Amino acid sequence: MSLHDRWIRSSSGVALIDSLKEKLKSAVNFPSPPAVAQQIIALASDPEIDVTKVASTIAKDPGLTAKILRVANSPLYSKKRKSDNLRQALVVLGMNAAVTLALSFSLVGTYKGVRGGGIDYIRFWRRTILGASAAQAFAEHKGLTTIDEVFLAALLQDIAVIAIDKIMPDFYAGLPKETTHAEFVAYEIKQLGVDHATVGGWLLDQWKLGGLLCRTVAASHAPLGLAEPGEAIVAGCVALGSDCVEILLTNQQPDELTKLSANAEAWIGMGPEDLAVTLQQIVARIPEVERLFDTSLLNAEEGVALIEQAREILMIRNLQALEQVNTLQRSSEYLETRAAELEDKHRRDPLTGVFNRRHMDEVLAKEFAIAVEGRWPLSVVFADLDRFKLVNDHYGHPAGDAVLVESARVILQVVRASDCVARYGGEEFLLILPGTGADEAIIVCERLLSRLRATRHELDGGAITVTASLGVSTFSPSTPFRSVLSLVEAADQSVYAAKQAGRDRVVRYDQLSRSAGIVDSARRTAAATRRG
């Protein structure tokens, strides 16, 4: 029975994983990081790292030195200053970026030479390098300060695939050549109980490559599993780079791009528009990445196809989003209209349709405050239908209701849209006329009296005319009132005076003849009974 078979049939998942780790530790055919890489790892953890130390370490590998110089002068870093030597290159790149890139090139250079029997290594390295470049583009879009660490993590996220293939040459041999990354992962979990990302994180920890790098690689298949949000975004960029390349190297389907867009939104908060732009950047930088790593990654037709499909998906997503927005907007407008209707209904008198007493009080308080502050006129008109009790007694209450409704309609015809008409109670109406002085208010009242006289109410017992008595009070700088209540009481007294003077007329409060006793009489009448 082969080692592979024994592991598959192991009854303990933990024992199987532990066995895998032990085999990796003792494997002589899977090389550890080269000496230069190990020195660079040591430099990365040295708090007193300086340019001289880094330059002397990198210079031990002429090929690595050439690559660092090439990167420093590459359009990928958009540097205006040309670097003629390694020291200048390190200054241009920055110490952290230089160390990370040097380690990337060193490790890739070492493991590109590893060969096994179960995977297509040419495809593997195309995928690895493309994924690292794509992950870097996503990190740049997010404005991360750990862009180079993202690049290194993406380069190493599949390193355990090589390790497993070396110690178990027959493990991947049964998979089809065009197996997708997701199928790789599903196969590993089924056979080993663990995927290569988890093994990779452990392996990098054995190499002492740093906690963030190990956690990022281990979480590269499930970035949201990291508790720290910043680390989750780093792992999300690595995971998106992998997904993006999977589409590039296969016959990409619209649903795969849609899934990529959904993952970009969930993992790093990237919308479809930004995703389309980032995909264009990834394809555009491929020639330079190929030059840096001395390899062929993707032909132009494949890149163009991805961009076109991304644009198509983006257009579809935008149309869907637009329709959703329109639907939400229509729903919102309907709800707002419905709410406004309900609110308006709550403010209306159910019989006549004019405003009710509660809303009248709110408008009066607001308009009185505005008038006082701005020293503007505000007129209030009390309208009391004459002898309305006789209408109810002779024709019945339904006929009386009809007269109230028609009278309210006539009142609304003579006022402005900015005025407020409310049913005060019974057959009484109150008109609030903002910005209207006493003289202008009298004109409105005379027009109303004329309209009421001309209005015929067709009732079952015959046609009748119902007039009204009107009382006007006006707040102005020359006729101030201390409160809303005093202003309304003045209009109330005026309408009583109009009743006593013969009805079907208007009386101004400021022109009441106190000597004639009209005001006192009106007050006594108000205290004694309601009008008929």
Give the spatial strand order of the biggest sheet: 2-3-1-6-7
Computed over alpha carbons, the radius of gyration is 43 Å
- Number of strand segments: 7
For the record, the CATH architecture of the largest domain stands as: Orthogonal Bundle
User: Helical content, roughly?
Assistant: 55-70%
Poorly predicted runs are 1-13, 514-532
Strand content: 5-15%
SS-derived structural category: alpha+beta
Query: CATH superfamily of the largest domain, please?
Result: Hypothetical protein af1432
- Report the major sheet: 5 strands, mixed
Number of helices: 24
Gap from first CA to last CA = 113 Å
CATH class of the largest domain: Mainly Alpha
Structure write-up:
With 532 residues, the chain is α+β, with helices and mostly antiparallel strands. It has two domains: 3-30 and 112-321, Hypothetical protein af1432, CATH 1.10.3210.10; 357-528, Alpha-Beta Plaits (2-Layer Sandwich), CATH 3.30.70.270. 64% of the residues lie in helices and 7% in strands. It contains 24 helices and seven strands. It has helices spanning 3-8, 13-26, 35-44, 51-58, 62-72, 86-93, 95-111, 121-142, 147-156, 159-167, 181-192, 196-206, 211-218, 229-248, 254-268, 272-284, 286-293, 300-347, 357-374, 388-395, 397-414, 438-454, 484-500, 518-528; strands at 378-385, 420-425, 428-434, 457-459, 462-464, 468-475, 506-508. A five-stranded mixed beta sheet has the order 2-3-1-6-7, sandwiched between helices. Strands 4-5 form a two-stranded antiparallel ribbon. A hairpin with a 2-residue loop joins strand 2 and strand 3 (428-434). Helix 8 (121-142) runs antiparallel to helix 9, helix 16 (272-284) runs antiparallel to helix 18 and helix 21 packs across helix 22 (438-454). 38% of the residues are buried. Residues 1-13 and 514-532 have low confidence and may be disordered.
